[in-house]
Amino acid sequence: MADAIQAAPAPHTAPTTWAGRFFDSDVWASFKRSKLTMAAALLTALFMASAILAGILSPQDPFDPAQLELMNSRLPPIWDAEGQMPFMLGTDEQGRDILSAILYGLRISLTVGILGVAFSATLGITLGLVAGYIGGTVDAIIMRIADVQLTFPAILIALLVDGVVKSVLGGQLDEMTTLSVLVFSIGLSFWVQYARTVRGSVMVEKNKDYIAAARLIGLPAPVIMLRHVLPNVLGPVLVIATINLALAIITEATLSFLGTGMPETMPSIGTLIRIGNNYLFSGEWWIVAFPGIALAVLVLAINLLGDWLRDALNPKLR
Amino acid sequence: MTQPVLSVRDLRVEFVTRRGILKAIDGISFDIGKGEVLGVVGESGAGKSVTGSAVVGLIDPPGRIAGGEIWLSGMRIDNLPPEEMRRVRGKRIGMIFQDPLTSLNPLYRVSEQLIETIRTHTNLSASGARKRAIDLLAEVGIPAPERRIDSYPHEFSGGMRQRVVIALALCAEPELIIADEPTTALDVSVQAQIISLLKRLGREHGTAIMLVTHDMGVIAETADRVAVMYAGRIAEIGPVRDVVQNPLHPYAKGLMGAIPSLESDANRLVQIPGSMPRLSAIPPGCPFNPRCPYVFDRCRVERPEPIQHSEHRVACHLYDQSPVRSEAVA
Amino acid sequence: MFAFIIRRALQAIGVLLAVGIISFAMFRFAGDPVNQIVSLDTPAAEREQVRRSLGLDDAVPVQFARYLGQAVRGEFGVSYQFRQPVSDLLAERMPATLELALCATLFATGFGVLMGVYSGLKRDSLLAKVFQTISLIGISLPTFLIGILLIYLFAVTLGWLPSYGRGDTVRLGWWSTGLLTTSGLKALILPSITLGLFQMTLIMRIVRAEMLEVLRTDYIKFARARGLTTRAIHFGHALKNTLVPVITIVGLQFGSVIAFAIITETVFQWPGMGLLFVQAVQNVDIPIMAAYLMLVALIFVVINLAVDILYTIVDPRLRTSIRQPA
User: Is B145 among the domain residues?
Assistant: First the structure.
C-alpha cells in the first residue's frame, strides 16, 4: 500500500552554496516545525552567551576574594524578605553571589564539555580512520579496545583516568591542570562511538573504484578518501557530538560533585552543587537548588537538540 | 437457493491519509456458498487482501469500513461490537496468511498455540484440547503428530508450518476460511500439496473458502468460482471454467492470457500494457480505461456497474445492451 | 550450544586479561607498590631493599604473571590510605553495593516494563505522554541531582526516610544485609530509586519500542485472526516477545548499575565499594582503584555470560541454531 500513496517528487533545483543547501534542507524545515526544538536551541544559545559574557553580566567576580564580604553570607534570594540586591539568587557561606557563581561555573562546565567533546571527536575520528584504512591487526586492536571500553560506563573510565593521571602528575594540581585532566579523561571516555561510525564509513569507501584509481595515478589515497569520508560521517558525528556534549557536561559535573573535578577555587556547576549540598540540611536550599536547576535545564536543552538532530538527519529512525 | 455462508454487499473500505481519503475497496458484492471455493485474483494493490481483512474485521486504522454490509450465514457481522467480532474470528471464520514463517509466534510451542486457540473458542478441557490439537495436526497431514506437537515453529519446514497454520484456522470448525495467498511463500513443489489439502478440507467439512491469490494457476486448479479484482472493484465474477476459458472483461482477458499453458501453442505470454493506477490516482469512469484495448468514450466518463452476462457478472460497458444508458452518455 | 558457551567464555577471559593488563599497569607504574609498605620519609636504600623484596626488579611479564596469580587468589595489595589489604576492604563493602544494585535493578525493571507496556499499548493516552516526559527527564537529570532532590523532599522536608547510610544491618556469615531490618529497608528506598531511575527510563523506552514493533508482526495479526482475547494477545504473545531484549538490557545494565553506584553511594554516604572507589580516586589510592577495576570487569563478564545463557532459555530458536550452526 505504501508505494501507492507516495507522491511524485516535486521538480526542484538544489542550491549550490553551503548555507543555501542548509536552509533548503529537510533539517531546517523540521527545525522550523518543532517549537520544542526552537526553544531548546534558544536556551542553549542563551546559556552559551551568558557563559561567554559572564564577566559583564555578573554583579560580582566570585573568584576575587576582595569582593566577598562575610556580612553578605547566606543571603536568601531577593524574593525572600531577607534577600538583598544585587544578590538576586542569594549568596553562599562566603558571601559569594550565587548568580555570579553560576555564570562563571557555566563557563567552566561548557569549556570542559566542549573541549572534551572536541578531544574525543578528534581522537575517535582519527582512530576510526586509521582502523578502517589500515585494517588488519591495527583495526582489530583498536576495535577490540573499543569493545572492551564500551562495556564500562564512561563515568567509571573518566574517574579511573582522572585518578591515574593525578597519580602520575603527583601532588596538588593547579586549576588549569585540573581542567586539562578533566578534558583528557572525558575525551578518553567518549571516543568509541565516533571511531565506530567513521570506521564503518571508511570500510565502505575503501573498496570504491576512485580509491584504486587515485592509487594508480599516485595520488595520496588517504587524503582523497578523507575528502569523501568526512562529508558522509559529518551528520552522524554531529549527532553524536551534540548528545555527547550533554553527557560530557554531566560527566564533568559528576566528577566535580564527587570531589575529583574542579576545585572550590575555580568551581564548575558540579562543584557548586557539591558545596551547596552541605547546606541542604541547614535550610539554605538556594545554594544547591539554582546551580542544580541551571545544570538540569542546560543538559535537557542540549539533549532535546540532539534528539531532534538525530531524527532530522535519519528520517528512517522515526 | 440456500443461504450463502458469506454474503458481501456493496462493501467499501477507505484509508484516511494526510493527502485525503483513499478508496481501497469501492463497492464490491459477492457470495460464497457452503463448500464452495471462491478465488479472488488481481494484481497487488487491487484490494484482495483488504477484502479478506474487512470480512474478519481486522482493518486497522487509518483504514475503515466506509459502507456496505457483510453477512455470515444470515448474521450481519460488519457492525458487531469488537468483543463479539472477536468471538466470530477463529470460531466461525478461520484465516490463513501468506507467510507461515512469520504467522506463528516463535516463542511458543505449536501445542501451546493450538490449545490456546481451541480453548478460547470451545469448552474443552486442557487434555481434551490437546487431543483435538493432535487430531487436527493429523488431519492436515503432519506425520507423527503426538510427537511433533510439542515442537517449536522453527523446527518445522515451510510447508509443514503452513499445515500448522491451517490446523490453527480449523481449530473451531469454522464455516468460512479466508486464505490470503496461502501458497505464495512456499516452494512450488509444496504449493500443490497445500492446495489439495485446502480443497480436501473444504469438501470434507463443507467449509466455504475464500482463496485470495495473484496466481491464476492456483485459482484454475482450486476454485469453483472466481472474482477478478481491479483497483478496488470486481471486474468480473463467474464460474472458474467459464472465466478462464471465456473471459469477458478486457482485464480478465489479459490476465487469462498471462497463464502459461502446456496445450496452447502460443509461445509468448500476453502482457497487459501499463500498470494498475495508484489508489490516489484512479481515473474517472472505468478504472481500467487507460490500459483497455477496447476503450471508448463512455468508459472515460461513466463507471460500469456489474451486469449479468450468461453465468458471469461483469463490470464493463462492452456488455451493456441497455440503450437508455448509452443515451445518458451522449 | 556447549561450544557456543565455551566460545563466549574464552572471549570473556580475553576481556579480563585486557583489563588485567590495564589494572597491572596502573598498579605497577601509576602507583609505586613500594608506597604500600613504607612511609614517604623512608631512606632510599631501605626503599630499594623493599623494591627488591617485592620482586619489582624482575622482568615486567614476570611481574604481570605474578600480579594475575595474586589477583586470581583475591590478593590486590595493600591500600595506601587504610594500610589494610584491599581484598578485605572490598569484601567488607561488597554486600552493601550488591544489595543496592539489586534493589535498583528490581525497581527499574518492574516499573520500566509496566510503563513501557502501557505506553506501547496506549501510545496516545495522556499517561503515556507523562511517562515519555518522565523518561526524558530521567535521561537528562544527572544521577546526583536526582539523589539530592529526593533527599531534600523525603528526608529534609518530609522526614520520612533516612538521607544517608544503610540503617541497621544483620550479619549472615561474612555478608552484612540491610534487607532484614525495617531501618535497613527504609534506607534502601531513596538510593535504589536514584540509582534505578536511569535504567528504568531505558527499559521503558525499549519495552515501548519493542511492543510497538511486535504488535505489527504477522503472528500478532494471526493471533487476532484466530480470535484470541486482547488480553492473551497483549500479555501472552506480545509481552513475551518483547522480553527477550529486556533481559539483555537488564543483564548488561546490571554492570553499569554497579558502576553508577559510585555516584549514588557518594550522595547517600552508602558504605559500599563505590564510595570506597571515590575515596581512592580522591586520595590517589592506586591499589584500590586497580582492584575495583578488576572486580567490576569480572562482574561485567560474568553477567554477559549469564545473559547469553539466559537468552537461549527464553528464545527456543537460538537453542537449535546454536546446536547446528547455520
Answer: no
C1 pLDDT higher than 70: no
Closest-CA residue to A229 (of A130, A147, A119, A150): A130
Amino acid at B49: S
CB contact, 8 Å: A5 with chain B? Answer: yes
Q: How far apart are CA B204 and CA C270, in angstroms?
A: 73
**Residue A250 and residue C142: Cβ atoms within 8 Å?**
yes
Topology of C86-323 in CATH? MetI-like fold (1.10.3720)
Q: Chain-centre distance of CA A202, in angstroms?
A: 25
Q: Domain range spanning residue B83? A: 6-92+172-319
Q: How many CA atoms lie within 13 A of A245 on its CB side?
A: 22
| C29 in Cβ contact with C21 (< 8 Å) | no
A95: left (phi over 0), alpha (psi -120 to 50) or beta: left
* Best CA proximity match to A70, nearest among A88, A92, A94: A94
The tally of domains found in chain B comes to: 1
Instruction: Report if residue B195 sits inside a domain.
Output: yes
Confidence at residue C111, expressed as pLDDT on a 0 to 100 scale: 92
In 3D space, the residue among A44, A121, A31 whose CA is nearest the CA of residue A303 turns out to be: A44
C-alpha–C-alpha distance, residues A288 and A286, integer Å: 5
CB contact under 8 A, B22 and A4: yes
Tell me, what's the pLDDT at A314? 65
Does any domain span residue B263?
yes
Question: Which of chain C's residues have a Cβ under 8 Å away from the Cβ of B117?
Answer: 226-228
pLDDT at C107: 93
- Shortest distance between the Cα of A314 and any Cα of chain B, in A, equals 22
Instruction: Tell whether B134 is covered by a domain.
Output: no
Give the model's confidence band at A27: pLDDT under 50 very low, under 70 low, under 90 confident, else very high.
Answer: low
The ipTM is 0.81
- Cell digits of residue A147: 569493545
- The CATH number of residue B28's host domain is 3.40.50.300
| Distance (Å, whole) CA A10 – CA A92 | 61
Task: Calculate Rg over the CA atoms of chain C.
Answer: 24
CA distance B145 to B37: 28
Phi, psi (degrees; rounded to nearest 5) at B209: -125, 130
pTM assigned to the model: 0.76
